[in-house]
C-alpha cells in the first residue's frame, strides 16, 4: 500500500507506544531531507527517521546504518539547540492526514520551560519538516526553505507563522463513516466504489480505498467489516508481499485481500519498512551523494570511448599503409608521365598484373613531391602502429577502471561514496580543492557477513577497501573471490578451508555485489589470497592472478540479507 493517511495512523500508533515519555539523546541529519532523532525510551535507544523526501517521505524507527556529514547542516544544529535532552510529550496525527506532530518539552536558553513541536508533512514533492514554537506558532526552522514565488498559499521560511496545508472537504473515517453505506448500495463496481471512497474520506490512497471496497463486499455486515478494517490499523501485523504476477514487492499493515502473494511477516512497521526501503531509498541517497562523482566518471568514460574510437580508426588506416607505398613507387617509376597541375593519374599497377590504379595528386606541388608525400604517409602510419597499439591498451585499461568505478557506485551505500570521491581525487579525475594538499585516504571497513556456519566473510565496496582487504587484511590462505571478467567487489572468506556451503555463500556475495547482480549463472573465480599480485603503478583495486577455480552462481537477495544478519 501507499504511505497514506491510514498507514500514517498505524505508524503513529506504533511510535506512541515506543517513544512517548522518552528523551531525545542525539540528533543527526545524514541526508539533506532526512533527520534521525535517537530517542532513549524504556532503557533502549530508538532511531526515529523523519524524512521529507519527495518520493520516500515517511516516519519510522530505523536500524539501517548511516554516515553523518563532517559538518552538521544548519537544520540539524538548530534541532540540537532546541531538542537535545527534550522529553517527548506527544506524537499525534493531524486528523487522518499525512501529517505527524511530535511535541516536546524542553528548556530555553534562560532555563524556562519551552514547548516546541516537530511537524512532518508527507506531501510528495511538497513534503517538509518544521520546527515550530508551540506558544507563538512561529516557524523556528524548516528542512526545506521555500520562496514566496514557489508557494503563495503559505509562508515557508523561519520566523513566519506556521499555517497548516489547505484542508480538503473530506471526512475523517475515524470520526464518521457517514455516506459509506449509500456508496455500498449504489455502486456495485469495486473500482468505482474505491474512487468514491477516496474522494469522500480523508487519508485514502487508491489502493487502500480498493481494499476497503473489497472488504465491504465480503459476506456479512458491510459497515461492521469497515469498522473492523479501520480498527486493524491500530493493531498492525506488518507484512511484505511478493506479488508473483508482476515480480513486485509491496507492504501492508496487516493481511490484505487485494494483495495475494508470498508473505513475509515482521514484528514492527519500522522493521518492515527498513527491508522495503533498504534498496529503493539507498539507491536514491547514493545518487544524491554521488551527483558530481557520477558526472565526472560519465564524462571520463565518454572521453575515453571517443579516444578509443579515433585510435581504432588510425589503426584501421595503418592496416592500409602498403597502399600508400605502392602509389609512391608507381609515381616514382612513371614520374615522366606526371605533370605539374594534375589532380589525378591512372598508372598500371605492376603489383597486380598491370591493373590500372587511379592515384590522387596535389596540383600545388610537383611530381616528385607527390611521390614523396605518399612515402611520408606510409612511413608515418607504419611508425604509428606500435604507438597506437600501446595507446589502445592504455585507453581500454582506463575505460575498464572507470566502468568499474561506475559499477561500484551502483552497488555502493552512501558512506562508500566519499571514499570513491577521495580515490578519484587522488587519481586526478576530481580537482582537489585544498591546494597543495594530497587527498587523505581514510579507508573504512568492508561490509561484514557471516556464513551459515559462522565464518566471517568480508566484502569490499570500493577500490580502496578492495586493495586493503585483499592485499593487507586477508591472511595468505584465506579464500579470495571475484566475479569473472567483470566489475565487482573483492570478497574474502576468512578461512583457508571453507565448507562447500560457505564457499557457495561467498560466491553468492561476489556475484551479488557486481555488475552481474541481475544475471543468472554468473562465473565467480576463487583462489587463495596469496596468489594475488598487484602490478607496479596499477590503478586501485586492480590485481592479477592465476591458478583460480570457477563456480557458477545465481545471485540471491534474500540469502544476502540472511548472511548480513547472521551472528558470528
UniProtKB/TrEMBL annotation:
Domain NFACT RNA-binding: 449-545
Keywords, sorted A to Z: Coiled coil, Protein biosynthesis, RNA-binding, rRNA-binding, tRNA-binding
Quaternary structure annotation from Swiss-Prot or TrEMBL: Associates with stalled 50S ribosomal subunits. Binds to RqcP.
Listed HAMAP family: RqcH_B
Family under the similarity heading: Belongs to the NEMF family.
Xref: PANTHER family: NUCLEAR EXPORT MEDIATOR FACTOR NEMF, RIBOSOME QUALITY CONTROL COMPLEX SUBUNIT NEMF
The name this protein goes by in its record: Rqc2 homolog RqcH
Native source species: Periweissella ghanensis
Amino acid at each position: 500500500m501507499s504511505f497514506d493517511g491510514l498507514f500514517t495512523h498505524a505508524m503513529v500508533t506504533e511510535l506512541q507506544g515506543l517513544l512517548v515519555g522518552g528523551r531525545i539523546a542525539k540528533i543527526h541529519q545524514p541526508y539533506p531531507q532526512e533527520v534521525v532523532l535517537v530517542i532513549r525510551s524504556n532503557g533502549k535507544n530508538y532511531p526515529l527517521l523523519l524524512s521529507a523526501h519527495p518520493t520516500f517521505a515517511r516516519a519510522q524507527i530505523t536500524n539501517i546504518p548511516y554516515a553523518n556529514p563532517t559538518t552538521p547542516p544548519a537544520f540539524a544544529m538548530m534541532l540540537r539547540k532546541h531538542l537535545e535532552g527534550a522529553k517527548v510529550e506527544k506524537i499525534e496525527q493531524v486528523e487522518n492526514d499525512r501529517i505527524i506532530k511530535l511535541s516536546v518539552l524542553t528548556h530555553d536558553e534562560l532555563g524556562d520551560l519551552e514547548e516546541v513541536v516537530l511537524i512532518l508533512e508527507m506531501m510528495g514533492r511538497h513534503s517538509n519538516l518544521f520546527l515550530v514554537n508551540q506558544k507563538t506558532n512561529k516557524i523556528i526552522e524548516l528542512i526545506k526553505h521555500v520562496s514566496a514565488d514557489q508557494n503563495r498559499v503559505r509562508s515557508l521560511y523561519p520566523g513566519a507563522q506556521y499555517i497548516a496545508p489547505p484542508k480538503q472537504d473530506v471526512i475523517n473515517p475515524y470520526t464518521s463513516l457517514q455516506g459509506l453505506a449509500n456508496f455500498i448500495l449504489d455502486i456495485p463496481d469495486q473500482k468505482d466504489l474505491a474512487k468514491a471512497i477516496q474522494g469522500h474520506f480523508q487519508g485514502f490512497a487508491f489502493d487502500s480505498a480498493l481494499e476497503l471496497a473489497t472488504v465491504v463486499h465480503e459476506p456479512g455486515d458491510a459497515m461492521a467489516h469497515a469498522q473492523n478494517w479501520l480498527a486493524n490499523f491500530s493493531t498492525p501485523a506488518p507484512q511484505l508481499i511478493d506479488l508473483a504476477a508482476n515480480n513486485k514487492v509491496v507492504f501492508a499493515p496487516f493481511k490484505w485481500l487485494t494483495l495475494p502473494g508470498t508473505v513475509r511477516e515482521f514484528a514492527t512497521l519500522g522493521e518492515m519498512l527498513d527491508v522495503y526501503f533498504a534498496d529503493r531509498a539507498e539507491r536514491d541517497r547514493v545518487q544524491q551523494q554521488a551527483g558530481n562523482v557520477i558526472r565526472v566518471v560519465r564524462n571520463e568514460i565518454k572521453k575515453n570511448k571517443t579516444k578509443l574510437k579515433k585510435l581504432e580508426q588510425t589503426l584501421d588506416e595503418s592496416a592500409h599503409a602498403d597502399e600508400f607505398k605502392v602509389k609512391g613507387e608507381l609515381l616514382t617509376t612513371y614520374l615522366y608521365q606526371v605533370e605539374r597541375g594534375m589532380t589525378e593519374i591512372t598508372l598500371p599497377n605492376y603489383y597486380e598484373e598491370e591493373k590500372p590504379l587511379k592515384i590522387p595528386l596535389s596540383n600545388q606541388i610537383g611530381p616528385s613531391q607527390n611521390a614523396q608525400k605518399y612515402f611520408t604517409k606510409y612511413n608515418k602510419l607504419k611508425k604509428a602502429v606500435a604507438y597506437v597499439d600501446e595507446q589502445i591498451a592504455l585507453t581500454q585499461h582506463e575505460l575498464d577502471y572507470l566502468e568499474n568505478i561506475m559499477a561500484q557506485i551502483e552497488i555502493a551505500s552512501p558512506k562508500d561514496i566519499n571514499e570513491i570521491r577521495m580515490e578519484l581525487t587522488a587519481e586526478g579525475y576530481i580537482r582537489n580543492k585544498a591546494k597543495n594538499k594530497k587527498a587523505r585516504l581514510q579507508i573504512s571497513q568492508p561490509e561484514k557477513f557471516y556464513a551459515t556456519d559462522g565464518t566471517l566473510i568480508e566484502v569490499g565496496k570500493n577500490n580502496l577497501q578492495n586493495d586493503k582487504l585483499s592485499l593487507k587484511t586477508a591472511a595468505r590462505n584465506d579464500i579470495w573471490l571475484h566475479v569473472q571478467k567483470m566489475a565487482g567487489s573483492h570478497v574474502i572468506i576468512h578461512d583457508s578451508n571453507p565448507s562447500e556451503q560457505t564457499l557457495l555463500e561467498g560466491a553468492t556475495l561476489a556475484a551479488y555485489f557486481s555488475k552481474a547482480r541481475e544475471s543468472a549463472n554468473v562465473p565467480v573465480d576463487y583462489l587463495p589470497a596469496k596468489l594475488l599480485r598487484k602490478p607496479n603503478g596499477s590503478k586501485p583495486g586492480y590485481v592479477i592472478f592465476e591458478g583460480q577455480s570457477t563456480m557458477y552462481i545465481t545471485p540471491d537477495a534474500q540469502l544476502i540479507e540472511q548472511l548480513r544478519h547472521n551472528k558470528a
